[in-house]
Automatic annotation (TrEMBL):
Key words, A-Z: Cell membrane, Membrane, Transmembrane, Transmembrane helix
Major localization class: membrane
Any GO CC annotation of this UniProt entry: plasma membrane
PANTHER family tied to this protein: O-ANTIGEN TRANSPORTER-RELATED, PST FAMILY PREDICTED COLANIC ACID TRANSPORTER
Record has Membrane as a keyword: yes
Keyword hit for Signal: no
Subcellular location: Cell membrane
Name of the featured protein: O-antigen/teichoic acid export membrane protein
Entry's transmembrane regions: 7-30, 42-63, 84-107, 113-135, 147-172, 178-200, 220-242, 297-320, 335-356, 365-385, 391-408
Organism of derivation: Micromonospora polyrhachis
């Protein structure tokens, strides 16, 4: 057992524990809310949830990754991390201000089209985005400094608070979506406050960091990250936009997506070691090792996806009714489409890591752009609203996989060492699926 533990990347156990608690919190959060809220209120909460994690993870996860990468590089060179934290925080604050202003300016329209006129949920949306901005920026610092116990603690506190707060709301009989949404604001902010000591110690020191090292790959990485979240989350939002009066399908679809995404949570714990391994093989020009690691990763996610698909298709309709009190509107066929889409999405995650290892940021972004366009086209095809968003999710993911596979096939002939390998950190924060 000790030998097995020594094979794990640094911080895997600490981060894995926090990630497991955070993942469990998603199921508890939606489960309690599903039993306490009526169909229209749960539908509004589902749309809020989808927007928060589409925009929040899409914008701020790349900042976490780039901060972690640069902090790790400076740590190796004996340089202080403060300048990186300062620049990363400024970028996160600018993005938050931009999107916050846009959301507030369109508050009435957003409330009318997405939240049945409940403007309070618009303010919850802004607050939840602020919480994610602060959390991901500080996690980048903790990851880059390899302070994985602190990193895992932040994840764990976030998850534990969500579970505790939602349980308290359920026991108190609260039936307002506002308070279930506020949990997404309160939990990440408190988790950051509780893990501030190493962040405060890192502030200051050294000369200001030039913008170029942080911005060089951030734009394309943000495009990829944002569109990846769009592909996996937009279905719930599209249900509300396509069929505003269908209060049952949006809530049921989010419950189903959370269920079929269980393999994504498992894969998140494996991603920490995948990119560094692929990048090292690519930099050394070892095509055989690169292909071997890529094949093994694809085999693992295929097995995860296949097992998840079997159980989701077989038990999905019953599980969402039992766990989330979701309306009985989805069949095994719906779960089969969602499961296939999730398997393809897992392949896209693996192939995306391989592309990044070859410095193919543009190819990855282009693949997500084309996949998102394909998703949009399929969504417009006349079918039932559930079929439209489910098949669109599957087709969009398939197109992304095809684009990435084509790039990797064309680049396979480049077996020499990479001329300008990018520093890679073994950040555990390469995937976050709520």
């Amino acid at each position: 057992m000790k030998r097995l533990l020594n094979l794990l990347p640094p911080g895997t156990i600490a981060v894995g524990g926090g990630l497991a608690l955070l993942g469990a919190a998603s199921y508890v959060h939606l489960g309690v809310a599903g039993h306490q809220l009526n169909a229209s209120d749960y539908s509004s909460l589902s749309v809020l949830w989808s927007i928060v994690f589409t925009v929040g993870l899409g914008l701020f996860m790349p900042i976490e990754q780039e901060v972690a990468r640069l902090v790790a590089t400076r740590r190796t060179d004996g340089l202080p991390p403060g300048p990186v934290l300062a620049r990363g925080g400024m970028i996160a604050a600018a993005l938050l201000a931009l999107f916050g202003i846009l959301i507030v300016a369109a508050a009435d329209l957003i409330a009318e089209r997405l939240f049945y006129g409940d403007t309070a949920l618009v303010w919850v949306l802004v607050g939840a985005l602020a919480g994610l901005a602060v959390a991901h920026t500080t996690r980048g610092l903790l990851s880059g400094l390899q302070l994985f116990p602190w990193y895992g603690t932040q994840l764990g506190i976030d998850g534990a608070l969500r579970i505790g707060l939602v349980a308290a709301l359920g026991l108190a009989g609260v039936t307002s979506p506002f308070w279930y949404g506020m949990v997404l604001v309160f939990a990440p902010v408190v988790s950051v406050v509780c893990t501030l000591p190493p962040v405060l110690r890192a502030i200051g020191g050294g000369l200001p960091l030039p913008w170029a090292p942080l911005l060089r790959g951030l734009g394309l990485l943000t495009v990829s990250s944002l569109l990846a979240q769009v592909v996996v989350n937009i279905g719930v939002i599209n249900v509300r936009l396509l069929e505003p009066d269908d209060v049952a399908t949006a809530g049921a679809l989010l419950s189903a997506l959370v269920l079929v995404r269980i393999p994504l949570f498992v894969f998140a714990s494996l991603q920490a070691s995948l990119l560094p391994g692929l990048a090292a093989s690519a930099a050394a020009g070892d095509q055989s090792a690169f292909n071997s690691l890529l094949r093994r990763a694809l085999m693992i996610v295929t097995a995860l996806g296949a097992v998840g698909s079997f159980f989701a298709t077989l038990l999905g309709p019953w599980l969402v009714r039992t766990l989330f009190d979701a309306p009985d509107v989805l069949t095994r066929v719906d779960f089969a489409w969602l499961s296939v889409g999730t398997l393809l999405y897992l392949w896209a995650m693996v192939l995306g890591q391989a592309i990044l290892a070859r410095n193919g940021h543009r190819a990855q972004a282009l693949s997500w752009v084309v996949g998102t366009v394909a998703l949009g086209v399929v969504t417009l095809v006349p079918m039932s609203v559930a079929q439209r968003v489910e098949i669109a999710y599957t087709v969009g993911s398939l197109v992304v996989v095809a684009g990435m596979a084509l790039f990797l096939r064309r680049s396979a002939g480049t077996t020499g060492p990479t001329t300008t390998p990018q520093p890679v950190t073994s950040s555990p924060a390469t995937g976050d699926y709520r």
